[in-house]
Amino acid sequence: MDETVISTQNLTKVYRMGKVEVNALCGVSIQIKKGELVAIMGPSGSGKSTLMNIIGCLDLPTAGEYILDGENVSRLRDSQLAHVRNRKVGFVFQSFNLLPRATALANVELPLSYSGVTRGRREKALKALESVGLTDRVRHKPTELSGGQQQRVAIARALVNDPAILLADEPTGNLDSKAGKEIMDLILELNQSKGTTVIIVTHDQNIASNSRRIIHLQDGLVIEEGS
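Structure (tokenized):
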């Protein structure tokens, strides 16, 4: 059985700004297996954000092929891409991206609502919050939570649909060192205990050092893959 959850072949992405073409990705081929914890690193302009957007089904490549969990998503329409994104990708962002007037529970229920899940929705959301240690904060709104707790809510929201991958973009960037360590410990625990496939996009070597493999990008190319 093929355990590859992400496979890209010669991905290119060209942005056109008037008469100028910017090559953000210049033929990126990577493989990520189920249960891996991988970091994607690179300086500003390296293409890591573009690659993240394609991996997360937020954008399509100009050319090349992207297989996510056995499904070719390289040429889908926007509506199809949104459906795949909701089912197969859990996002954790630096800025949390929580609805400020909704409770932790309501925030975590959102992806289930978008998926049309009605039966057992609340129970699934409660279980996801329990998995990140927030059973005592389900009725709290983001303004009533610390930064670390808000990021835990975001992680619970990302996991509630049992996605194929958890995609974390600078997940500790807005946290102090103590809260940041707690969030990384949680991500590591989820990876190890649940076998969650995790991709962390970061410029922080300390964060990347927690991963089992680092994919380095520069000028739109993979220049090094190390363990």
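The beta strands are 4-17, 20-33, 37-41, 63-68, 71-72, 89-93, 165-169, 198-201, 213-218, 221-226. The helical segments are 48-55, 78-88, 104-114, 121-131, 147-159, 177-194, 205-208.
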